[in-house]
Amino acid sequence: MSHKHIEISIPANVAEQKSCPLGLEENNFDYSQRAQWLRAAVLGANDGLVSVTSLMMGVGAVKDDIKAMLIAGFAGLVAGACSMAIGEFVSVYAQLDIEKAQIKRESNNTRVNEQEAENGKLPNPFQAAIASALAFSVGAVMPLLAAVFVRQYKVRLAVVAAVASLAFLVFGGIGAKLGKTPIKKSCARVLIGGWMAMAITFGLTKLIGSTGF
């Protein structure tokens, strides 16, 4: 008996999909694509938390009045959010100009520039500024909410420090999870850095306040 052979052609893209499991595709995902917005969000939230918490702890080192602490924290929130937004806008706009100039050097066709911008490949300064301001505000509002409900001076300082420490761990974990980096190391860096900022601000302010300056 003779055997008949039937040849079936399989498209290359289908073959590649079958040869590449779903888990492997996820492992091959380029997480550097998240770098721009992740950096702005994590830095903004962490900076807001560290700055406002340290500012409130510094004021609390020399004043036990809750009003003074809350006003200082709110002022730090507004000023910090504006500073983050302006700084991120200027930085990303400079990056945008550099990338546009590079595209023009590579091609004299203006349609290429429009197509790149429409596809979202070029950075957006306005989005970066808004994201940074919102992220800073999210981090900064946490110590304010922690302090507003506690009237006793020493308890208020302890609650603010505890809430900030927990938030440090959360932000560190979120950043590590999204960026696929070691969670323990990320949390430890953020937590230790936050503690150092609070301790230095509290200690120096307490020292200056005790000398009468």
Task: Output mean pLDDT.
Answer: 79
Note the gap between the termini: 106 Å
Secondary-structure element order, N to C: HHHHHHHH
User: How much strand?
Assistant: under 5%
The major pleated sheet works out as: none
Structural class of the helix and strand makeup? mainly alpha
Domain count: the total is 1
Shape: elongated
Number of helices: 8
Oligomeric form: single chain
Q: What value does the Rg take, in angstroms? A: 25 Å
GO cellular component, one term: vacuolar membrane
InterPro entries: Ccc1_fam
Protein name: Vacuolar iron transporter
Family: Belongs to the CCC1 family.
Describe the structure.
By secondary structure, the protein is mostly helical. It has one domain. 81% of the residues lie in helices and 0% in strands. α3 (35-62) packs antiparallel against α4. The relative contact order is 0.15. Residues 8-20 and 22-26 have low confidence and may be disordered. GO terms for molecular function: iron ion sequestering activity; iron ion transmembrane transporter activity; manganese ion transmembrane transporter activity. It is a multi-pass membrane protein. InterPro entries: Ccc1_fam.
Keywords for this structure?
mainly alpha
Quick synopsis:
With 213 residues, the protein is an all-alpha fold. Helix 3 (35-62) runs antiparallel to helix 4 (66-106), helix 3 runs parallel beside helix 8 (183-211) and helix 7 packs antiparallel against helix 8 (183-211).
